[in-house]
Amino acid sequence: MTTHLLADFASPSDIAFTPAVKARQEQHGSRAGYAKFESTRGWESRVTPVLADFIAEQTSMYMATANAQGQPYMQHRGGPRGFLHVLDEQTLAFADYAGNKQYITAGNLDENPKAQLFLMDYANAQRIKIWGEAKVVTDDRDLAARVYSPDYQARVERVIVFTIKAWDANCPKHIPKLLKVEDVIPAIQARDQKIAALEARLKELEQKLAG
Length: 211
Fold this sequence. Notes:
The chain is of the alpha+beta class and 211 residues long.
């Protein structure tokens, strides 16, 4: 396995704000604002209660990796609510279930551990980007049991362990409002029951008036 360790950055956001990115920010007038933010609060590099709560609600995410040549790859991963687990303040993990057997993500991580997670909450127009390094674990039964969801009908092939280097909660602009089916169905059922009750009452009144 080729090692590509992330360097120690002056600010966690430097993992994304490279010199080329900062030059673009300078060109378009946003560098001063980001520099001030970096010198005061800046991006987080550990799991906070806010991030832990957000992760616990997710049923879907995207994971980005790249091979040794820098060719990027984005893969969707999903599962039951909370399928992405917080192991400690800097480590996340999730069960990687059997799929189409392309193994692009696993192969990329074998030669380049740099990765990113992208979590989107469409219902509340929130998104979080997490940078770090990931590895494939196939021989740790205790870890697999910790992240396995017994109610989810799929076979665990491996566990992906993700070490956080930095994360950022992006702005809500341009996020479409989408609702989860399991959140919408109860409201629709309640509406339908109310409509049925009103229709029955209306029919009863019509019958009384006709009589």
